[in-house]
Amino acid sequence: MSDETLSNLLKEDRRFEPPAEIAEHANLKEEAYERAASDRDAFWAEQAERLDWAEKWDRVLDWDDAPFAKWFVGGKLNASYNCVDRHVEAGRGDKVAIHWVGEPLDDTRDITYAQLKDEVSKAANALTELGVQTGDRVAIYLPMIPEAVVAMLACARIGAPHTVVFGGFSADALASRLDDCQAKVVITSDGGYRRGAPSALKPAVDEARTKTDVVEKVLVVRRTGQDVDWDDAVDVWWHDAVDNASAEHTPEAFDAEHPLYVMYTSGTTGKPKGILHTTGGYLVGTSYTHWAVFDLKPETDVYWCSADIGWVTGHSYMVYGPLANGATQVMYEGTPDAPERGRWWQIIQDYKVTIFYTAPTAIRSFMKQGREIPDRFDMSSLRILGSVGEPINPEAYVWYRHVIGGDRTPVVDTWWQTETGMIMISPLPGVTHGKPGSAMIPIPGISADVVTEEGTSVPHGSGGYLVLTEPWPSMLRTIWGDDERFKDTYWSKYAKEGWYFAGDGAKKDSDGDLWVLGRVDDVMNVSGHRLSTTEIESALVSHPKVAEAAVVGAKDEDTGQAVCAFVILREEAGDGGEDIVEELRNHVRKEIGAIAKPRQIMIVPELPKTRSGKIMRRLLRDVAEHREVGDVTTLADSTVMDLIKDKESSGG
Ligand code: WT7
């Protein structure tokens, strides 16, 4: 972010007080900050009481082997029991857990907690029947259909860690994840609906299986009815295996530190990291934050998080948090513009949604379409709005509050990461006054700071690196199969202090409130999706015509950042041919997925490098963002930038 944007941000002085009604009945009040800080263990033990434990813990936190944490040591529980059975046992079996809305109009299903319990139990029995045992990994590659939630909870029920792979990832990306965590079973579907048309999924699983031989069985949900290739030795229909299974299943209690899931996310190297979350602490953290940050009143609220289940937001705030809390929620299969651009607002109106959680990139695209579309709907049921995934620009915040929330609704700008598992920095809707663009301060129980390179806390009005200074229950436990990378990535920069390095830059304003500014490493944020520059560079270099590639994230009005690539072709490829740019964009799509497709590719003769051979991405970002190119004195060859700029002005 440029200095100019920064100072504009810090001049933002609009303030929104919490509505009296929400303040008065707020789940969490001001005093919680003090209470949590004075005795952290006691505070987290109190939060852990939200869950049903088969055996209580004897120690809240074991940090003796830092950074390898153990939370609720000795405790035993079952995550699926906590998300489903206990609500049924408490007499709330008839309560709707999920109002599912398919993309085709009138394709809806309301699923009660009792029905969910039966479905999850059947799926758990079916997985066991397929040979899945406690500890085995199961991959889930599904669209936003109820079976995705059922599959996750069924895995949790039998203690088989799941790894959900976003349906937009390609066969190659899927294969590398299957391989990395050695997934024995994949749960997929024939396809899903996307913008009014069925879009196939199973072929990607078939193709992934040609690249790795770890998979023994593929369980296939029939969603669209489209044709699929079938391998009798491997493929099993969900409706055969699950529908015919028994609805009786006794959940086993697992150790609090039993692995719950692995979620892959991009880091600074080419290989995605498998972030490991475990059972007890993760469930405590997600249920506590879902209750506190959204001020959830499970009896009356209708909650909707628009995230896909393939991302951590879908895990923490569509599955584990809301279901552990016994909430009623909406789950929507499709895109916001199908069959027309008011679809989301129609859903809010139809289901009287009270809490809505989405991403700035979506808000910006609605802003662009104009307020006439949302204005056609009655959204007076909304009482709290949430934002996640990237910094929300003040204009988008104010529009969201004003046009969607009718100026009644607090906006909670929630900062967190795949690694943190739960919301860490956010306003509390009944306590904090809203400042457009600021995620404000860490929630009760969490300690964060903004520090210099040397680890000194920065004064108010200054910027630095965001760190988390105390462990928290839903923290990642390691990177799957790579403890060293776990230590290097998060715990080595401030090893002496024992702090977690988040990889984000942030600023403290004059009140001490935090403004998260974005990544300080080679990670990009495109529409709230995390992408690694190196991963896309590796994909480009794997193309036979490419010699070298450099990727930067350039500022983009719609998507926050956009992928811009600079590519040097191999000599034998000549000028690459007329369609070289499209060819390379499609190649990236094939290697990683459509979300990683570069917005722009420039074929260049050279890349700017330092004398030690490091690519100077800062200069490429200047070009991609159409700025005057900055200081080139550390370049090995200072004429390189002239060559690149010539290319740019000639439209290359
Ligand atoms: C990165 C984490 C958390 C679930 C979705 C993304 C950025 C996330 C905010 C926010 C400013 C934010 C950070 C972070 N980010 N939320 N409210 N304000 N930046 O999870 O893919 O793990 O990405 O997203 O840069 O490090 P993720």
Automatic annotation (TrEMBL):
Q: Which UniProt keywords apply?
A: Acetylation, ATP-binding, Ligase, Magnesium, Metal-binding, Nucleotide-binding
Q: Which organism is it from?
A: Nocardioides hankookensis
Q: State the name under which the record lists this protein.
A: Acetyl-coenzyme A synthetase
For this protein, the record's CDD domains field holds: ACS
Which residues does the annotation say bind Mg(2+)?
541, 543, 546
Q: Which residues form the AMP-dependent synthetase/ligase domain?
A: 90-472
Task: Using the record's annotation, list all stretches that form the AMP-binding enzyme C-terminal domain.
Answer: 535-614
Entry's Gene Ontology molecular function annotations: acetate-CoA ligase activity
